[in-house]
């Protein structure tokens, strides 16, 4: 039997250490590179942080596999066994340009089922975490179970990509959604936006293209807080591929799905 509580204690220690190192990097010169396009950034700190987690996991839990955004982990093609899905810095553009609104995100899955989830907002020292069946917390304070939110009072996280025509949506319906809700926000970190859904700072989050490392930690935390995470057509997320992601409080998830997304 896997001792998840023991793993939880260990991960929290590593996250604090990684956070201290990232904070210290603010006073150093960053090495910034572009990946798939000029706006897709990666820094030495993203890579070093991913390496830090990989080294710790390989030493402490040699049987576990690692799927990391910067590609230094394993070539994960199936969900069998225990897999750590890691985004060392989610919101790299914010990290580079603003030194805020970024987070470490980790989801630990066993045979495709989320067991532990972490999102650490380093600058605000806010650690969100969840353990399957046990609930979700922010800095060890339990998150209140999410309740139904009406569309009219909802604040939704949605990025500018929805302004552009795309195959997932009827754009006129999305414009209507933006008009009907109380407000829209865009923080530029999928992980933080999911953490905000879990804690009620946002009522929903909609995005076109998230990779497993963007949502693995957040999905666990939102679900343990009583929210729902799916694709924009209401299906389960594929943990090994890119998905359009829709997370929301209960009730609101159903309402938005029915009226605006299908
Ligand atoms: C990005 C952020 C961003 C989302 C992108 C992600 P990264 O992650 O989460 O908010 O819109 O789709 O790729 O590259 O900063 O880790
Ligand atoms: Ca990236
Ligand atoms: Ca990311
Ligand atoms: Ca990243």
Automatic annotation (TrEMBL):
Binding site for Mg(2+) 2: 90
Keyword Chaperone on entry: no
Keyword check for Cell division: no
Domain of life: Bacteria
GO biological process, one term: inositol metabolic process
A UniProt-annotated Pfam family: Inositol_P
Cofactor(s) needed: Mg(2+)
Coiled coil segments of this chain: none
MF annotations from Gene Ontology: inositol monophosphate 1-phosphatase activity; metal ion binding
Secretion signal, residue range per the UniProt entry: none
Cross-referenced InterPro entries: Inositol_monoP_metal-BS, Inositol_monophosphatase-like
Entry keywords, A to Z: Hydrolase, Magnesium, Metal-binding
Protein's UniProt name: Inositol monophosphatase
